[in-house]
Target: VOC family protein
Amino acid sequence: MTFKTGHVGLNVSDLDASTAFYVKVFGFDVVGESQEEGRRFAFLGLDGTLVLTLWEQSEGRFGTGTPGLHHLAFEVPDIEAVRRAEAAVRETGVTVYHDGVVPHGEGASSGGVFFEDPDGIRLEIYAAAGADERPAPTPGAPTCGFF
Model:
């Protein structure tokens, strides 16, 4: 048996704010949605493929101290795409970790930008090469650990 990730579903506190964020940063299209009170959701995709679903079913901020999601990582073709994403992320005003694009670890060429969405869900946009212009932010630990 083989598996492939189909899509990821996230609970959000403000569907409109989260949809606008993911459309701006990732370039997703809204491929489906419901505005029915108590059942609001948005399906986001690229080129007709569903990637992310947002469900307005939560309050407060994402909690990193409980079991569950650690972070979501999205790979892009090259470091230039990471830098474009970083610019879009910074325009939204959310938290950016490590002060921008960094390698995944000391001596690694792969890396990216690490940040939060409007609800505090930790995200990563990375490329397989080209992020080695700066040192890794945490010696001996992976950058995607958000330490």
Notes: The chain has two helices and eight strands. The longest strand covers residues 49-56. Residues 70 and 145 are 8 Å apart (CA to CA).
